[in-house]
Fold this protein.
Amino acid sequence: MRYGPILAAAMLGGMASAAAAQTELSLWYHGAGSANAEEALVNQLVEEFNASQSDYTVVIETFPQGAYNDAVGAAALAGKLPDILDVDGPVMPNWAWAGYMQPLGIDEAKLDGFLPGPIGRWNGEVYSVGLWDAAVAMTTRRSTLEDNGIRVPTLDAPWSLEEFNGALATLKASGKFEYPLDLGMAWTGEWYPYAFSPLLQSFGGDIVDRSTYQTAEGVLNGDEAIAFGEWWQSLFEMGYAPGTSQDAADRDTGLLNGKYAIAWNGNWAALPVVEAFGDDALFLPAPDFGNGSTIGAASWQFGVSGTSEHPDGARAFIEFALQDRWFTAFSDGTGLIPVTAAAAADTQNYKPGGALEVFYGLSEAQALVRPVTPGYLVQAKVFEKALADIANGADVADTLDAAVDEINEDIEANNGYGH
Amino acid sequence: MALVTPDNHGLRLWTRYSVLVLVAVIFIFPLLFMAMSSLKPDQQLLSDTNSLRAFLPVGDISMQNYTDAFERAPIGVFVVNSVLITGATVLFTLFVCSLAAFSFVFLEWSGRGLIFSILLATLIIPYESIFIPLLLMVSQLPWIGTGGLEWGWLNTYRVQIIPFIADGLSIFLFVQYFKDLPRELIEASRVEGASWWTIYRRVVMPLSGPVIATAAILKFLFMYNQYLWPLMVVQAEEIRPVMVGLGYFTDQLNVPWGEVMAYLTVITIPVLAFYLSLQRVFIASVASTGVKG
Amino acid sequence: MASKLTRSNRAGWLMALPGVGLIATFIIVPFFLAFGFSLTNQRLASPNPTEYVGFENYSDLLGMAFFTLEPERDEAGNAVVEDGEIQYPRLRKFTRNNPDYPNLQGKREWFSWQSGENRKVVLASDVVFMKALVNTVTFVLVVAPLQSALALGLALLINQKLRGISLFRAIYFMPVVVSIVVVSLLWKFIYSPGDGLLNNLLSGLTFGLWQPLDWLGNPSTALGSIILMSVWQGVGFHMVIWLAGLQTISPTLYEAAEIEGSSKWQTFRYVTWPGLRNTAVLILIVITMQAFALYAQIDVMTSGGPLDSTQVLVFQAVERGYGKQDISGGSTISVLLFLIVLAISLLQRWLTRERT
């Protein structure tokens, strides 16, 4: 301890001289090992930002996605957060509430013309912004539908519940497919609430009551939710969709090699489908089960950590990233959806007539963010387990009741999560 | 059984070998699948699982997956880190735990019984359950570094090593083994005036080949397989170990299975080498010393 | 056998100190902190202050209730029967917001059985925890004897003097040196449903008679599949420990047995087995400890599913503590696990105590 003051002085001296030159900003990013262009583009973004000004140097540290949230949690606990955080959209409110993040404080005029998903708001303030968005579609082949006399739905006239069930029955009866529908049950984790809670919403239910965010009672276990649950269970009972033991490899290739007729899949997986089927590839909106056709929104975004000593620098970096040319570059590189219409017009896949143009429409028209609450982290896990259990034959009402209880107990244990 | 003498009766010999081979097949087939799959492109790898081809180097065979895997992640860095961290821990463990066990078995001191019972009880605390309090602790611990006194152990090699040096199981293994060593040997040395340190070093440890090998292998496997802890305490890629590196492959949307298999094969090699280097000590020395029983 | 020769406080303490000190610092202190957390509402991330809650976390996990469910009755008072099955009111009528049954509030059915017309139901506050507890105990009860017996069998098998035996020894040991995470990933392929590797192999061996199983996707086979894989992975290690034990048995004992004309079984029973006593205790304890710590296989292969058939305690502790940010809940499970294993190991020590 004797050396404390001397050391502190020495370090402060060191820092001061560094600050005179350049302040180092740390950035954590979740995509280690992604072979696609995303990681390379993030690196390029950092390099160009560093070259564009002389006050700050951003230093990037990458993590494998599965480890990222736990690493951030541990770092927060130990008081070692970086300056700039990469955060999954629906997780942001939790991090903001817990103090891991601070309001972005950028001029909101810069966000004009953005899709709704990529802007992360909590308690009336913007905490995070995404450079891209993602969307999900019923992916299939035009010929598959036409051969079986199934109508091709549109954004204005999506399939109804009966139509959709009928289509699945027809495809099953055709005997040409192992399963008519691939829901991607092999992808555990965030995929479940992201991809399946919009289906529940279309039935009229939800994960949590969004008017107060204080309870899930009546929303996740009401009549509409039970109707959804019964339908969900029937998909597996009738052999329409592979269940939780689906092989991850089948999820990746099942549609392409004809095992499955329709796949509920994201735009990130769309390019191989276009390559394989060309004009025959179809990306269709979610069915309308009674309360409109919706899909999930919000992907990974950037924000400023709560303990950053240089929020100005972090903000400068994020503002630097909010340029159409970056949106275009990320979209071209990764197949993800650009966040503004202007950027979309310049992309290979989302420009008018582009192979994935339809996804921009889906995102614009149907996207609904997941519940905006710090409790989402737990709610997502509870929802995932409930859906897996129901798929495996658990009693629907009892399972949803149990899920409601767990969600409510968690909200209570956290004093209402600050809503 | 041990008495079995070489039996040259053709048929019986043949039966014995077939049993041995059959059991060997059961133990080796998943590993064979791993190694062979690492040589195949993803499409073929997956379709081959429908037949015995999964275990054969057939079709489109190449080292492409290895090339791709090394491009995707700094595998060399991960392996070196893991070997370093694991190796250092194993060395410290062997010393610290055998020394403690020596004290428990051969020396009488006040509090010995009580402390040993407490140590035995710690054997059943799963590490996963104490990681969060442990994290809070190590983030505050002091260290004398190159620049003098510093606080906090996060993001270092030592935070991956020091907390795991001593554990109840390793001490217990040594204790069980030491108990069977002839006490007369120790007492004789004591009479001759040898210090405890000398007895430990010159008498007991040279007789302890098998238990050293056992404890070393157990610790090696435990350390090499660490995932949750390094994930929590290490942020820099330069000091990241192999199991966290696995996420570079499996956390992708379209998992590159061929590269996964290549990575799994690569990270298995150091452990296999470690075992093979110890196998002789592990088994043979027990028989040769003839100390026990 | 205290003798003056071995009595030495200073040397004893000095030699034990590094080990004891490290364990105290890095295991015992954190464990007491974890115990402390279990008496609070500590969260991983929260702006709310931490509060002392006493043993509430424990009662939340262990709360149980017993309830007799009477059948639905028609106007005449007879039980309603449809399709040959007695109809009961739904349990949720009693467990949700029913002021008449405050003790059932929020509880769920754990298991039930038929008793005459009535159904006896055992409810639990935390059914998932109860299932995890039962699965963990089941896993230990199956794996401990199975793995030690198989390991002994293998040890006897490779304790022969045959050309190339050390190669077989190495092969049998191979799964041990492969990380359990790696092994779990590989076996996920092997257990793949439909035309997965194992189904295909079995189908080939039975000339197509085998009906493909969904090994990990079916609640009745999932835990069994994980047990099988765990034994496969771990058995080699214990084989080697047995082998070391076997080789300490003096050959003269075997020679004596042969001279007296004892059968193979008698030799095993009266020569081999008594010589393995210490080894047996060691192996049983090590396997039991390892089995209670079951985690990686579950994390990689099933995440506790399907229908909680592979939930286990350590997985639940991690899932709650980290996944759901509920440090206090996760810590509570860890403390309970510790108490359970402590009780069992005391029992084991008592059962295997040396009778003098």
